[in-house]
Structure to design on (229 residues):
């Protein structure tokens, strides 16, 4: 269970180098005056007719910031001016609401497995509890229980993505048509079959991922229309 990750003795040694080099652009519960100036319990908006409090929005934004920190690392400080965390927070809430409607869940076992398989928490190819606790405490500045629930949400969102895009597929004709476009050929007849045979598998995988993402983006657009706050 999740206690396995939390109950081991936290290392006393601090990542001094990491703390000096990296000054996180946020703390998990710290936000701009836009939130502080309002009662946190007041509605920030609505999703599918249900009130969303400023606390819920704040936590969703914080989750997006944590995931951005994990994804971009040191580069986040220079990139965050281009990231709209508030919009991403709303999007997270919309998707989680849709996932609940579909009764999509994530077990404690799945959460533990996801955390243990994350390279950021590993040493010599294996999960390291010491690193896990230090990264959360000194780098991400988030409590283990909160982080574990964030990972649970991410697993749920991954399942939602898979559920929505599973029916997306490609046939041979579509692969060839896109290959012609990429190679800037005039027609499928100009395809070098030997070269195509070597490139086909990787090309088809990239094309399918792109098609799934486009399909999911269209799904998001429709979902957002129905959930306007």
């Amino acid at each position: 269970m999740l206690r396995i990750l939390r109950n081991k003795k936290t290392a006393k040694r601090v990542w001094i180098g990491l703390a000096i080099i990296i000054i996180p652009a946020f703390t998990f519960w710290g936000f701009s005056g836009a939130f502080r100036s309002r009662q946190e319990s007041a509605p920030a908006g609505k999703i599918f007719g249900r009130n969303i409090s400023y606390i819920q929005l704040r936590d969703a934004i914080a989750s997006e910031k944590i995931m951005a920190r994990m994804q971009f690392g040191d580069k986040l400080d220079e990139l965050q001016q281009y990231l709209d965390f508030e919009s991403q927070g709303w999007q997270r809430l919309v998707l989680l609401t849709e996932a609940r409607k579909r009764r999509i869940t994530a077990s404690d076992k799945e959460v533990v497995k996801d955390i243990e398989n994350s390279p950021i928490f590993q040493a010599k190819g294996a999960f390291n509890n010491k690193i896990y606790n230090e990264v959360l405490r000194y780098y991400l500045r988030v409590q283990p229980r909160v982080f574990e629930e964030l990972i649970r949400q991410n697993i749920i969102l991954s399942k939602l993505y898979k559920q929505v895009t599973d029916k997306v597929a490609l046939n041979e004709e579509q692969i060839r048509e896109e290959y012609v476009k990429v190679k800037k050929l005039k027609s499928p007849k100009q395809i070098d079959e030997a070269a195509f045979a070597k490139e086909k598998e990787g090309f088809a995988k990239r094309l399918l991922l792109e098609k799934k993402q486009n399909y999911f983006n269209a799904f998001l657009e429709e979902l957002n229309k129905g959930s306007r706050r």
Summary: DSSP finds eleven helices and four strands in the chain. The chain has two domains: 3-166, 167-229.
